[in-house]
Design a protein that fits this description.
Elements lengths: L1 H9 L20 H9 L1 H4 L18 H12 L6 H7 L4 H11 L16 H13 L2 H5 L17 H13 L8 H6 L4 H12 L12
Length: 210
């Protein structure tokens, strides 16, 4: 896992415009803020906290990670008809503009759950995260960094699909880091990991470094 993490973070060429991605001055009020509101907010939420099933939370996500995913959608390497349709016409400056704006969206805590988390399942999920060194890449607070996504309080259904996709190879990453990391983890344990991460409080409201 440590080797995979290092390869994922350092062993690839960045997508166009990804180097040193930081939100430019005025990005919150710029043209891509408006374009995000028009094109993305209906699914991903105006503040980046989607309430749609299967749609990832973008709030608190890193601009470098966002531009990587937009690049994969544009190039047809990730299979999602809706996102591919959105990204296929984007120029390099669009990838940069949207990802820079996403990088300005502060983390938004998940709504309070209707029932308390299952303590035994949370303990098992925490153990799995430690055993499989998830925190080595994603951080002790699951906030990620640079090309590594923030996963704390991401939607459980999205996490399940992503983990299963990496395990089966149906979801290609920009590198093979995640596929290698989860390839030997049983499916039921991946679901427990998703359960734990989706409910992980940690410092979910703390802004992740960009």
């Amino acid at each position: 896992m440590a080797t995979a993490c290092t390869a994922g973070a350092q062993g690839t060429k960045a997508p166009p415009g990804a180097e040193g991605t930081k939100a430019p001055a005025g990005a919150k009020g710029g043209v891509y803020a408006q374009r995000y509101a028009e094109l993305c907010a209906s699914c991903h939420g105006a503040n980046g906290r989607s309430d749609m099933a299967g749609t990832p939370v973008l709030a608190g996500q890193h601009s470098f990670y966002a531009i990587t995913q937009l690049f994969l959608f544009r190039e047809g390497r990730r299979d999602n008809p809706a996102m591919s349709a959105v990204a296929k016409g984007m120029k390099d400056e669009d990838l940069r503009g949207f990802s820079d704006f996403i990088g300005t969206l502060a983390p938004v805590p998940a709504p309070a759950p209707a029932a308390a988390p299952d303590a035994a399942r949370m303990a098992r999920g925490q153990a799995l995260a430690q055993e499989n060194r998830c925190v080595l890449c994603h951080g002790a607070d699951m906030s990620g960094g640079q090309q590594v996504p923030r996963i704390a309080q991401q939607h459980e259904d999205y996490l399940q699909l992503a983990l299963q996709g990496f395990r089966t190879g149906k979801r290609p990453g920009y590198t093979q880091a995640m596929s290698e990391a989860v390839s030997r983890i049983p499916a039921e344990d991946l679901d427990t990991l998703a359960y734990y991460v989706a409910r992980f409080s940690g410092t979910a409201a703390k802004a992740a470094p960009r």
